[in-house]
């Protein structure tokens, strides 16, 4: 497999781990209230993506790093601070949308040069599309919350 594609897979895998870890922190801080269902859904999406990417890395004789990066600490800290001061309600959606939009753009970067084998391109496209659907759902929830307030 092309070196650039492997690097993209590693980066996407790390981003999925970091996002999952941030949502896990948010889920703990939400204490069963507010955005708990969304946090659970996002954990599942990122866990699934990380697992699929890890399998592809393993097939390419790479060892996936399941520890994430420094961004895990950043995501957890942001969720902790938001929880302490504002709670984890719809007010966090703009930040989540921004973060997931950045994650989706990483998939665009991985796919733009067309070097990915067909099976990898298909996987990355499906994962990107899933994130875009989640972003759309978050935007709809945000718009509904704004209409109420």
Structural overview:
With 149 residues, the protein is mostly helical. The protein is built from five helices and no strands.
Order of helices and strands: HHHHH
Taken as a percent bin, the fraction of beta residues is under 5%
DSSP helix fraction: over 70%
Q: Give the end-to-end Cα distance, rounded to a whole number of Å.
A: 51 Å
Q: Calculate Rg over CA atoms.
A: 16 Å
CATH superfamily: Ferritin, core subunit, four-helix bundle
Structural class determined from secondary elements: mainly alpha
The biggest sheet, with number of strands, parallel, antiparallel or mixed sense and barrel status, is: none
Helical region count?
Answer: 5
CATH architecture: Up-down Bundle
Query: What is the count of distinct domains?
Result: 1
> Which fold does the CATH topology refer to?
Ferritin
How many DSSP E strands?
A: 0
Provide mean pLDDT, rounded. 88
Q: Which runs of at least 5 residues are low in confidence (pLDDT < 50)?
A: none
Envelope shape: globular
CATH class reads Mainly Alpha
For this entry, give a set of tags.
mainly alpha; Ferritin; globular
Could you write a compact summary of the structure shown?
It contains 5 helices and no strands.
Topology of this structure?
Layout: H1 3-30, H2 36-59, H3 70-85, H4 93-112, H5 118-148
Helix pairs in contact: 1-2, 1-3, 1-4, 2-5, 4-5
């Amino acid at each position: 497999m092309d070196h650039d594609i492997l690097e993209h897979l590693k980066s996407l895998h790390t981003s999925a781990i970091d996002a999952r870890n941030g949502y896990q922190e948010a889920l703990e801080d939400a204490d069963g209230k507010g955005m708990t269902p969304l946090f659970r859904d996002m954990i599942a999406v990122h866990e699934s993506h990380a697992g699929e990417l890890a399998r592809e890395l393993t097939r390419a004789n790479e060892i996936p790093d399941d520890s994430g990066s420094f961004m895990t600490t950043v995501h957890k800290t942001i969720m902790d601070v938001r929880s302490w001061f504002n709670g984890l309600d719809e007010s966090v959606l703009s930040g989540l949308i921004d973060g997931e939009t950045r994650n989706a753009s990483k998939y665009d970067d991985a796919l733009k040069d067309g070097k990915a084998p067909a099976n990898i391109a298909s996987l990355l496209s499906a994962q990107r599309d899933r994130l875009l659907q989640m972003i759309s759902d978050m935007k709809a929830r945000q718009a509904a919350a704004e209409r109420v307030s």
